[in-house]
Amino acid sequence: MSKLAIIGGTGLAHLSNLKIINKQMVHTPFGPASAPLITGELCSESIIFIARHGHGHTIPPHKINYQANIWALKSLDVEQIIAVAAVGGITEQMSPKSIVIPEQLIDYTYGREHTFFNDDFNPERHIDFTQPYNQRLRKAMLTAAESVDFAVVDNGVYAATQGPRLETAAEIKKLENDGCDIVGMTGMPEAALARELDMHYATCAVVANWAAGKCKNEITMQEIETNLIDGMKNVRELLEKTLPRVL
Ligand code: HPA
After folding, report:
1. Given this structure, which CATH class describes domain 3-246?
2. Could you give the CA distance from residue 60 to residue 66 in angstroms, rounded to a whole number?
3. Residues with C-beta less than 6 Å from any ligand 1 atom
4. Residue 32 has what pLDDT?
5. Ligand 1 centre and the CA of 108: distance in Å?
6. How far is CA 22 from CA 4, 12, 25, 31, in A?
7. Which of 19, 111, 122, 205 allows an S-S link to 100, with CB 3.0 to 4.6 Å?
């Protein structure tokens, strides 16, 4: 059995149906993780959960200690990660409240600690990142999606932007020209750090809003929060149906 962790993003700071067995704050060579790592049971399956933005959602995307979070999970022998993330929808299929299992990503972030391979930490490794997401985890979510009554989009390119501000309309147009379908602020370096530590990683994205310039109205936090409440309800159901397939 291969231990699995769920990284919860905006809108999923806790899993309401998780039976908590243990909570522990893990300190790493890179500092503390965002929040205590919670070991628990979700529908009788044992998992670990961490809130990416901290317990009270206090850590903005560019300040998250991605190295510490991934290292902490590895230190608890986690081998596979499902990362839940709120995103903006760029292309037509990616309408608010949709769930997307992206297949590719492009990294537009900067100034983040993005690798473990510095200095004494094995300086000369170059991970293969051709396929940034683990196909087995992706397929497990997509197969689980066959027995739910909401649509789950298979494929799509995730653009990782720096944040914390949302993008300009011109930036979104550029991302679309680059081939991106959804945009979020936390997908990198998280995915690459997991690969560096040989952990399987896939993203379950929830569309919170149309990206900048993709609808007439201004993007409001109210709109994002409302869409995430419905979207995350579906994510919880999808996760519950996915776990038996990967544990
Ligand atoms: N852009 C970037 N990140 C996001 C968005 C967005 O429009 N919505 C939710 N996270």
Report:
1. alpha beta
2. 12
3. 86-88, 161, 166-167, 183-185, 208-209, 211
4. 95
5. 13
6. 15, 19, 10, 21
7. 205
Do 65 and 24 form a contact (C-beta atoms < 8 A)?
no
For residue 110, count other CB atoms closer than 10 A to its CB.
Answer: 9
Give the largest CA-CA distance in the chain.
Answer: 51
Question: Which ligand 1 atom sits nearest the alpha carbon of residue 209?
Answer: 8
Specify the residue with its C-alpha closest to ligand 1, atom 6. 88
Phi/psi of residue 143, each to 5°? Answer: -70, -40
Contact indicator for 48, 6 with CB cutoff of 8 Å: yes
Do the bridges between strand 80-89 and strand 99-101 make them parallel or antiparallel, or are there none, so unpaired? unpaired
Sign of the dihedral through C-alpha 164, 169, 175, 176: positive
Tell me how far the alpha carbon of residue 103 lies from the centroid of ligand 1, in angstroms. 18
List CB contacts of 4: < 8 A, sequence separation 6 or more: 45, 47, 48, 78, 79, 80, 81, 82, 243, 246, 247
**Beta strand extents in the chain (DSSP E only):** 4-8, 19-24, 27-28, 31-32, 37-42, 45-51, 80-89, 99-101, 104-107, 152-154, 157-160, 182-184, 200-210
